[in-house]
Structures are given as structure tokens and as C-alpha cells.
Amino acid sequence: MTDQPQAPADVDIFQQTIEKNSHRASIFEIVLESTVFQVIINILTLYALFGDDIRVAAFRLSADIVFDALNITCLIMFSTEIILSVIVKEGYFLSFFFWLDTISTISLLLDISLFNQAVGLSGAGGQAKNTAGLARAGRASRVGTKAGRVVRLVRLIRLVKVYKSANKDDEDKVSKLIAQRRQKRKVTAVEPQLQDRVEQNIPAQSEEGETKESKVSKMLSDSTTKKVIIVVLALLFLIPLFSVDYFVSPPTSMLMQAQQFVKLAESESSTYDDVKNAYNQIIIDHSGIDNYIVLFTSPLYNYKDFPIYEHDDYPNLRTDEQDVGAYTLDYETLIKTTNLPNDAILNFDKENPDVVGILSTRQAAMMTSILSIIRTIFVSIVLTFGAMMFSKDSNDLALRPLERMIDKINKIANDPQIVTEMAVIQNENSNETVKIENTIVKIGTLLALGFGDAGTEIIRINMKKQGDVDPMLPGIKKVAIYGFCDIRNFTDATEVLQEDVMVFVNNIGDIVHTMVDRYMGAANKNIGDAFLLVWKTRPETYSFEEDNVIWHDKQYISTLSDCALISFMKIQCKINREPKILAYRQDKRLQARMDNYKVKIGFGLHMGWGIEGAIGSNYKIDASYLSPNVNMASRLEAATKQYGVPILISEQLYEHFSPEFQEYIRHIDRVCVKGSNIPVSLYTIDMNVDNLPQSNDPSVKYKEFTKEELKMILRQKKLEIKEQIENGEFKAVDHLQENKDLRLILTGFKKDFMEVFRKAFQAYLDGDWKTARAMFQEALKLKPNDGPTEAVLHSMEETNYQKPSDWKGYRELTEK
User: Alpha-carbon torsion 39, 43, 48, 50, what sign?
Assistant: First the structure.
């Protein structure tokens, strides 16, 4: 009992479905992916970002021990998460995100006050025992605070995890909702009595599997996230370097100096010398420093001991390059409390009672401008580099593949057959865009193979137009060369070979199609034991006048006609030389059925018009040709058996062969084929297939080449011939001499026999059958068992070698 055929499994080209229960999850994976663990990690992440600032802003020193405990808890949990991720997540260890997680976790140490005290980054709190200890504690605290704020920035990266976790939950909810709705639609779509069965047998999508993130989405998301992180961290770390405070100490405020001088001058305990010395000391202390004093004056400037101090640079300073400090000296208070001389008080300028000091901030302004230039350049570089990085990812992963897809689709729309020259991108780890691109090529190739050259217009028109597919297009009248091939004894071979008959036919078909394609033809139909081959002529090379074809490029049609016959000659040679075909001569099954079995093929070649288009309906179509001329090619092939030759050629095609090629072709009869009342001349070419040497086995000859490389070799051979034809350099006679197969198959070509046969046949056509009989018999001496000679003699024998009274130079074929 044979097994029941299995229903085909659903195709998952992009491996987007994760099968549930396909592997048993480890305890580590269960813990890491659990909702409870993720919620805890997300809460601790938010705490790690803001906890230390909350400690300082809202609590006193005594609460630090509690925050230390929370920070240690964060440190333990984050470390646990990293260890679990290393175990569970493939490729995580030593990855970009591994190092970010590790650094952000280690940075938590700086929030633990006990750790900072142990390493000397902060004091122990409270009062220091001496001023030196107090200074050291202050410096350590400032260093620790700065380091903590800088390193803590890395923890911002953990926000990405919070976002991804929330986003994953949303996607899971959406997926489940969609699955439920699909399940509901499936159930409600069937008849009520089948609902129970559907509910039992159709699992929801969430039970079968879930859709995972695509490779291209993950790559683009991860790459963008990494680069955003790098850019943000670079800005956060480097932007402070462009602050002038990093390089120049801020100027001491002159407001404080002016205020101190006023208080001293108004104090009852101050002496005149104290005020005068203070005035001079301010000028001395602020001279010769980076932010030097450029102006100092008081309302007492008219008195000799308090002159206005003005530096030579003062007139050249801009307003924003001055640090101005002014404080009002009260005249009434000065009179009551001061010990200043009366002359000084009398010279008090009541209209300008302010003590004014101005420091030069020129150096800081210069540095600020330089840093601003550098900062602008840096930000421009970061933005440019960031844009380039982001656009590179989108270009590499999405936009360029999309452009390639568009380009390929446009090429296929313009010439569907060109897809056979497109290569599939070979990459085992390719992402979805590459797979889609390859799928376009594969679908296009299958279309080209399925529709063939005759379906080119159907594919092109339907791809270009908007709306639904319409394969039933009007036919197009074209002129072409039609070739028909038939495998001899196919019925017997099928009965004997059974399942192996497919390999048998396809081995022959491979040779037939390859040779026809190489010589500018195209396979149209595979009809079991027969093949219809077509050489379409270019539309610009001919035109129709009523039913007559007017040729505009006779050189082109002559070359194409030569190629059609050469391709059949190559096929005839290949089936008698190729190891895979010769192997059937040793097949015991075939030899038991047919003694001395050899693979044989009959050929028919004809030229004429035909209607190219879709044959069938909207359920199934075949792109082919309808015409009496197609039938003529088939009849010619069938007639080869009567003449004992492998090929018959019509006169419509013969007249287009190049004159040099015609020398190898002989006129063997003039007949009306069955079903036609128009006489046609029949031609053939003698081909010697006896004792041909076996070809090298391609599997050995090309064993080092890949399948794609072999296709390239075949394509290159075709392109060489195509280039010769387009340049007008292809000469059939030269090709017959240069090509090994053609040289072998023409071995033994006899010009003397050709001349005798030609004269005999001409006498036959002229009605001089007595002469014709004698010369045909002479021809048989030169070439015994010649099929065409025996066929003509047999037809003459039917009338006792007497010309019929109504002889018109042709006879009727009695067989189809």
C-alpha cells in the first residue's frame, strides 16, 4: 500500500516564523525573558538614572546608607542580567551592547559613598580635623562628583532597553490581537455545523508560532541604535571640552573688590592709610594676570592719592570683553565715619559716586571664539558623519536593494528574457531585502521559462499597465523560422523507462534548448516527445504587403537562417557524442525492447508568418504560435521518415541561406504535403553521425566550476555569436570549419555525389525519368542506401519509371 501524499508545507522564504516548542528553553532563558525580571530591571534602570540626584536634592547625609543599599542592589541585578545574556543570547558576549552594559553597571560604583570614601574620591563627611584634611576632602569630592556625572551618562543607554522592552510588549499584544481576529474570521467564515470542528482543529497563530523581527529590521535597528549612542555620547563627553572654563579660569569679579573698598572707606575703624593702601593693592593684585585690570576709579579720583588707573588696552576693549564691577560710595556716610583728609572729601565727585573696577576678559573672549569655531566644526563633522553613517545603513540594507529591485523589475518589464542573465546573490546569511531581490529574479526566471520568448509581450504589457492581470491579449503577426524536433521511438522508451523517462526527455531537451538558444533561437513548446523551436525575426527587418513579406535586411535574415540550421546540426551531433545520451545505448531495458537502440531525432525547418499570443483562458494559457507555417514545420519533420534523413528544410527557408551554405544542402524533392495544394521543394543536409568520438564528460571537464560559472560559460558562448551577428562578421562556412562538432558531422561530405544527385534530380523534375533513373542509380553507387535517392526511385517505380501524363514537376506525399 502506497503512502498517502502529504499536503505541502507552508513556505517560509524569510524564516520569519518561530516555531513554539521547537527547543526546550533553559532556566536561564526563562528567568531572563520573564515579565517579573524585566519589570524589576526596568524599575532599577530608572532609579540608576535619577537616584543619586534625588539623594542629593531631597535627603541629608544620614540617608546615604539607604541609597548605598539600593545602588548595590542595582549593581547585583544588572550584573546578573549581563551574565544571563551572555549565556542565553547568541553573539552578545564582547559585542557593542555587552561593553555598554558593563560600563554602565560599573559606573554604579561611583554612586556608592562607601566605595568613594575607600578609594579617596570623597571625604568621610562631617568636620575635618584640620584645614589640610578639609582641603583634600573638598578636592576629592569635586573630582568624584565630576567623574560620576561623566560616567553616569553611559547609563542613559539603559533607556534603550526600557524602550525595547515596552515596544516588545506592545508588539506581542498586537500579534495576539491579530491572531484572535484571524481566528474569529476563520470560524465565522465556515458553515455553523463546522464551527466546532474548526475551533478544535485550527490553532490560533499565537499557539503555532510567532513572527519574529526580520533580519534587515534588526540589523538596521541595532546599527542605528549603536550609531545614535556613539554620536550622543561623543557630544555629551566632548561638548564640555569646548567651554572656556576648561582652559581659562573665570575672572575674579570686580564687584566684590569694589564692595570691599567701599566698606573699608566707610568704616570708622579704617585709617587713611588703610583706604589708600587698599586702593593701590587692588590695582597691584589685578595687574600682570590673565584677566588684568584695565580701569579702576572712585569718586575720590580728583585727590592725589586716589588717581584714576587706566590701562593702555582699555580704549581697545569691546564691551563684552570687560568684567565691570561697580559699587556706590555713600557721601554722607563717608563724612560721618571716615578718617580721610578734608581735601579728599572736598574732591568727592557726587555726580559719579561709584567705585568702578574693570578687568580685561579679552583672553577668555578670544578663547571662547576659537572654541566656538572648533565646536561648530566638530558639530558639523559629527552631524555629517552621523548622517553618512545612518544613510549608509539605510542605503545598504534598504534603499540600494530597493533600487536594485526597481531596476530589475523595469528591465524585466522591458525585456522579460533578460532575467535569465541575472545572477542570484549567493549569501547564506542574507537579509530579507536580498531574499526579496533573489525572489524577484527567481519569479522572473520562472516566468521567462514558462512563457518563453512568445510570452514576452504578455509579461511586458501586464507589468507596465495598471490594474488586474489580463493575459488574453490580441495576437501579433510576426515572421519567424519554425523548427520542429521529434524523438524517435518515444512511446517505446516511455513504456520501458517509466519514471526515468523524465530524465531521458530532459537530457535531450537540455541539448536542444542550449543549442537553439546559443544560435539566436528560443524554445517555445515542449510536447513530450517533440519540441517547437522559433527564431523570431526583428520587426524592423521586414514589412507586410498584403500577404507578401518584404525584407529590408537580407544579410540579417540570411545569417539567422544559417544559425537555425547550424543549431539543428549541433543538436544532431551532440546526441551522438554526449556521454549522458550515449549511455542509453547501454541501457538494458531499451536494448531488450529495441535492438541496437540509439537516440534519434527528426527535424523540420520552415519559415513564414505566424500569430504570436496567448492560447487558452484565464485559467491556463500557453504563449505560442498559430499558423499553417507552424504546421508545415511539423509535417516536414514527419516526412523525414519517408526520406530516411534526419532533417527536411522548406524552400521558403532554403532561399535565405547564404550562398556558401547552400553548397552543402541538396534539393531532394518537390511535393504537395498532405493537407496542402501548394507544391513545396524539400531540402536536406547530409550529416555523418556514424562513429563520432565521444565528447568529454561535462561533469569531469567542468567539475571545478559552480553552477553559476557554468551558466556564465554558456552565456559567453552565446554572446560571442551574437556579437559576430550584430557586427556582420558571422560567416556560416567559416563556422562549419572552425567548430569541432560541425567538422565532425560533415566528415565524408562528397561533392561528386552531390553533383550526380543534382543532375539526376533535375532530370526528374524535367520529366526525363529515364535519364533520372540512370543517374540516381549511379548516385547510389557513390552513396549506398541514400534515403532521398531511394525515396524518389520508389515513387518512380510506382508508375514503372514512366512520367505521369499530368506531370507538373512535383508529386503528392501520401503520408502526413
Answer: positive
Is pLDDT at 267 greater than 70 in this prediction? yes
Q: Can you tell me the distance from the alpha carbon of 521 to that of 717, in angstroms, rounded to the nearest whole number?
A: 14
SS3 content of the chain, % helix, strand, coil (to 5): 60, 10, 25
| 235: Cα within 13 Å, side-chain hemisphere | 14
Q: Within a 10 A sphere around the Cβ of 544, how many other Cβ atoms?
A: 11
The predicted model gives 775-785 an average pLDDT of 93
Phi-psi region of 721 (alpha: psi -120 to 50; beta: other; left: phi over 0): alpha
**Grid coordinates standing for 199?**
475551533
Residue type, 629: N
CB atoms within 10 A of CB 671: 19
User: What is the per-residue pLDDT across 384-395, written as a single tens digit (0 to 9) for each?
Assistant: 776 677 667 777
Q: For residue 255, give the C-alpha cell.
A: 564687584
CA 142 remoteness from chain centre? 54
What's the pLDDT score for residue 252? 57
Cα distance between residue 216 and residue 223, in whole Å: 10
CB 291 within 8 A of CB 323: yes
Crossing angle between the packed helical segments 554-574 and 707-726, to the nearest 10 degrees: 150
Within 10 angstroms of residue 320's Cβ, the number of other Cβ atoms is 9
The verdict on pTM exceeding 0.70 is no
Contact 772, 756 (CB under 8 A): no
CA distances from 158 to 30, 39, 163, 172, 196 (A): 21, 13, 9, 21, 48
pLDDT at 462 > cutoff 90: no
Within 10 angstroms of residue 130's Cβ, the number of other Cβ atoms is: 9
Burial 52-91 (b: 16+ CB within 10 A, else e): beebeeeeeeeebeebbebbbebbebbeebbebbeebeee
Greater model confidence, 610 or 51? 610
Which residues are CB-neighbours of 363 under 8 A, at least 6 positions away?
Answer: 248, 290, 291
Task: Report whether pLDDT(300) > 70.
Answer: yes
- In whole angstroms, give the CA distance from residue 479 to residue 652: 12
Within 8 A by CB and 6+ apart from 337, the residues are 266, 267, 268
3-state secondary structure 540-581: HHEEEECCEEEECCHHHHHHHHHHHHHHHHHHHHHCCCCHHH
Residue range 430-451: average pLDDT? Answer: 82
Three-state DSSP class for residue 67: helix
Residue 107 CB contacts under 8 Å (≥ 6 apart), including other chains: 148, 151, 152, 154, 155
Residue 555: C-alpha distances to residues 164, 489, 729 (Å): 69, 39, 11
Instruction: Name the residue among 525, 584, 543, 537 with its Cα closest to residue 563.
Output: 537
The letter for the amino acid at 603 is F
Report helix, strand or coil for 332: helix
Residue whose grid cell is 553616569: 152
- Please give the Cα distance from 64 to 122 (Å, whole number): 13
Q: Name 29's Cβ contacts closer than 8 Å, sequence gap at least 6.
A: 88
End-to-end CA distance of the chain: 45
Residues facing 812 on adjacent strands? 672
Q: Which grid coordinates belong to 597?
A: 537502440
Q: Map 673-733 to HEC letters.
A: CCCCCCCEEEEEECCCCCCCCCCCCHHHHCCCCCHHHHHHHHHHHHHHHHHHHHCCCCCHH
